Amino acid sequence: MTQITLTISDPKDASLIKKLLAKFDSVTISKPERKRKTGIDEALEDVAAGRVTRYDSVDEMFEKLGIQL
Q1: Alpha-carbon distance 63 to 52, whole Å?
Q2: CA–CA dist 65, 60 (Å, integer)
Q3: Which element (helix H / strand E) includes 60?
Q4: Which residues of 50-64 are buried (b: 16+ CB within 10 A; e: fewer)?
Q5: DSSP string covering 8-56, please?
Q6: Which of helix, strand or coil describes residue 68?
Q7: Of the candidates 35, 34, 6, which has an alpha carbon nearest to the alpha carbon of residue 20?
Q8: pLDDT in tens, 30-69
Q9: Backbone dihedral region of 5: left (phi > 0), alpha (psi from -120 to 50 degrees) or beta?
């Protein structure tokens, strides 16, 4: 079995090629597996990109969020 990976930038061309390949009985078309990110992976990306907020204390955090105790 031979496996070929194509990268096509124009969706119209991709659709045309899929239709053409579907005519062959010996050809199967499969979508690539997308790896889903876990919560920890997303959190680490947020930290790396600087999308975090730091507070000196819990009281300061509650004050900034408008939560009164």
Answers
A1: 17
A2: 9
A3: helix 58-65
A4: eeeeeeeeeeeeeee
A5: -S-HHHHHHHHHHHHT-TT----PPPPPPPPHHHHHHHHHHHT-----S
A6: coil
A7: 6
A8: 887 888 999 999 999 999 999 999 999 999 999 999 998 8
A9: beta
